[in-house]
């Protein structure tokens, strides 16, 4: 990362001078949670950390006033609470944490806060936080995924039925690319709940009915997907695609206004401006 | 509705006798919130209420042991907090309410709880609640939308750019079908943030980047969509499609198991069984 | 009910236009809780719902600017938590809910909020809420019972020793009047804790010492009273008396000022005016 | 007080040995709040403290296994928050405090807990606490007033219209009896909201409609009643009547069972026994 | 104590008139907790109560505008939760209580609040409260110990290895001085965890590593120290030393300013002034 | 660091296999907060991070079964809330976070949890957490400072009067040693509140009276100490001393038992064993 885009490496006065209405502050959100025997507890954090750093760097090089904060390491991983090693915050603790940090960012003079999220279990609570932080602090808030889909390098489709959402081919490939020393493919096993693919309405996403699940609802492994199909080459593609998406997102976010381009009014009547720092 | 499928019309002992592992309990979630000058505050509640009642009735007639609870009238409508008439719960209050009700349902002997939701602002917090209730009570939890898309009756596409999410053609049509006495089309105006459609990444859904918004971020009307295109005939189609989706969902939910059909084990290691009633 | 007195059937702008300093907003509070084998879980809600609607209608016809909100269905029923079918909120959840709704009413421009309460278990927490909402929002707050005593039609006294407070002759009669289809008198049994009547000091009300009880402290039925004495005719009398009381209460409330008639100052030094909507 | 009835003067092991199923533990609840210029902030606490100590002493002498705890000094006095000198807990803090203390009493082996309350503003939150503590800890809980009405010594009626509820003739007389050094009658003024007596339905108690009030709603004095009618002789009568009521209450409480005399079963199905001490 | 220095013995208006920027308000914090078989549950409270009253009296006589509030009887004693008789607040309840009281003191017009603390278990939570109250209310906050070390009267060193922190020679001596009627030395036993003295790094204080402990971690007695070495004469010395420290502390506090003597500015940029009383 | 001592780099099953009763789990606690113009916001985090990693590595090499978790980046920095760039959690959020993580560590099979803390503002809340986590989870908990005093390399004393606690010579020297690229000595200024050294009783530590302060109470710089005296050589000494202390602490902690060496019983009666993972 180009020196200076890590906000917390600045001094307080330097951070205050650096941030302004045009700044985009990125808070990567990771997790420390069970990902099966083949992946480290840090999997989501490594992805969020690395994609955020690279994307902020590239976006800044392209003229976006982007800044990255230290990754939030511990988040809402209660679907893996049953699995030793998972370090999880309750929903209430996680939401309070994110609101507290949002207030801090607003007090520092920025107007845009991006959660760059590496853990699927954070999507719903961050969905709540997006609005909570917007309403309470006046910040414009955004949620960007740290990992996006990409076609496998050999042009062949993955055989995961779209169910590889935790410890499957995508995450394992990313880790093979980013931290191969932490991956043990010898213990990787396929855990694809194939019947779910046959389900007409109920599913993880893209289907109209969602459901509350814990990761051991699908079997003792706590894995959803087929890590045996993972390769470092696929990981490299996923990483590039994810960084590219994040760079594009930061660029678009920097210019985004709900009333359309060119508008500069800070907020609607529903926002009372940044709350007092208390 | 066929007598007896409204759970709260039973006595306590009758409810206890009626509910069992195969039962599907439906909690409709509405809202009391600003929907522009042409629609009642009750809009989301009317939709959730009517679709839930009809769907439970039809599902029961088809052999699903479905039950409907009284609609939760007041929910998380803080995106409309700026608009007089909106009656909103804070995120914390809403989550506690839903968890309390989940515990009550679990204590009554059911194993499946469905939120049939009429208000978009509830989707994220209910996403949190799905897992929270599952983990704390052992219930299997599901989220079903009260309103789904349907093609307009005349075969022509709507001109809302997919942005008609609040007080637009769909909701207005539904209300013209269900409660025309509460709709005042003479005050309906088009409020489509067209620039959002041009946004490559940022959007309400279907796009990879979501954002935190208050309804007056898009203009003083607090409406997103074009209610001038609404018709009762389109409302009838939407209603039928929504009920049909809900009936199919209840049917699938009644037989759903994360390990696939035929499995009966109640939960994974992560679920300790229903919590004590305290 | 005369069209327009159901506040949530108005649009947001219409509600804002309708409400003013002279308005009286009524929030009926019901319950979904065990009432013995002869009464529906909805008993308290039906009473609150019906009495509120009728009273607001009559009061409005008499010139009171009264409005009714959707009934709060789920409330603090923990004394029946042991009984399957009871859907209860914890004290904390209930208080937060009522405070959130109070803030919403204050933001809508009204100055008077009435809880018209059908469930005895809500009296103490609403007593807390009356002051909490007054202090935090500046609203004037009132608590009106949905069910009041009335002499039985045949002039004979009831034989309940004043202990018919839950599922007894009064509630059962009301339901026989309002929803006879939901009452099963064949299962009604007398459960009067006669020794309590002999207690000099300890009792439910009217005696100086109160106590904390759960409904199964008095026996396995969870009923206090003698529903076998209930009749629809008595229910009609109770309903009329309750509506009359509520109408008179709304009329008096509309003109009430703690400093006496003619005063218009909104509040004492202790009230800082409506809190910001956050 | 006879040595040994102040529970906290015992050692831990002695307290554990002293308490058993037949014990009645009394927690006096006072307040530190504005009572006008003529009475000390401590008024309610002095009354609760003195009546509790004397009543426990007399009850113990009469064979009741009664014990008194240190008075809870700071309670829910938010109706006087506007008045400097008032030291108040929010509703939430007060309820948590009382629940925490209830758990502690249950863990010590007692089965009966009595709140002997000197402050009217605590009645509603203690009403909530009675049930909350019963449900969460299995304790039987009771609320006894520290001050009860008594006829004035000269046989003449007081001229307060029943509205002397805060700093009026009764409290001032009690203090003239118990701590005359802290009373300054020269500053006492009559503050009786006479119009309230004319109110048909709305009132403090005994009338069907209650309301949320702050003490300065009735004028700048924060007093309700006529302290100019107070005398030490009337205070002595009130004190005797209050102690007599409390002694009789403790006696009745020691033998009280909701199923009637002779029953010994600890609780209904709704009580799971004392909660773990955490 | 000289009349008038007990703040709560004043009326509200008198308290408001008495307090000003130069006032020092003292809140003694005690405990009701197990102290072994030889000491009363009230031990810490008696010490805090007596030292505070005497110190405020002497400081006032010396010209410090000091005031004492009623002792906070119930505090954070969870390290003794296992011992019957301990009445403890959870950390959250204790912190909320202290913050609520801090707001009340700030609203009364004082600018300095001193916790004079008799219970070691309160030191950490009061450390949190010092800053929390300062930040939220603008008060300057201080923590003064109610018991300080003093050499034994006979010039001989105590043989407790510095580990006599709960129910040991110091506390027992203080009680022998202040309330000998509540001490039973016949049951006193030596409980000194001598190995702790040998620990190089881990200890209660003065050593660099602290640890989380419950009082029964060190044995079944819940005592840390050697009460058999206690004497009333030593207690008298400890009392005098403790009062002297407290008087000196109040004197220094009255003149204290973080910018040094002579400064009068109320606070830094981080303090927004007393919060609104809500 | 030797591979494998970073717990979150293991997989869940590997972590479960690695941890046992003899394991010592280290959670470094940093901060993101203003440290003056010459130091980065990350100062405390860098110290905690680096000292923890090195100490765990050395302790493990010496046979201690030590493991380090990802550093908790955001903590309780409210004394610097006034300074832009500070990212702070409220006390409540911080305590909940630490308790949640403690539960997670207990569920993973370890029995000892060490907070290795780089931020002074965390000492009081971690003092609360030590006991809270011990009581709620059964873990033995410890607090070790990440930075300890050491004599300056040239044998001369520092001229900070013992008041260099935030951004002074010690922290600045550490950063000059660990991350010189992030230090800008050209902006360093001396901010020593010399009058505090003259204060007899009131001070930061070592003096009997502590006080609640915000960092701008001492001037606009938010610095306490004299960073102009900092050198990389002194930083190297401080780093070595701090690592050495931490290694010694981990070694002692691994063998620590409150009943003395050789004892293996897990806990006293006050600990009910690890709480259920919910």
Automatic annotation (TrEMBL), chains A, B, C, D, E, F:
GO biological process: riboflavin biosynthetic process
Obligatory cofactor(s): Zn(2+)
Keyword Hydrolase tagged: yes
Keyword Zinc belongs to the record: yes
Domain of life of the organism encoding this protein: Bacteria
Keywords recorded for this protein, A-Z: Hydrolase, Metal-binding, Zinc
Any one Gene Ontology molecular-function term assigned to this protein's record: hydrolase activity, acting on carbon-nitrogen (but not peptide) bonds, in linear amides
Gene3D superfamilies the record matches: Creatininase
Family: Belongs to the creatininase superfamily.
Protein's name according to its UniProt entry: Creatinine amidohydrolase
Source organism of this protein record: Cellulomonas marina
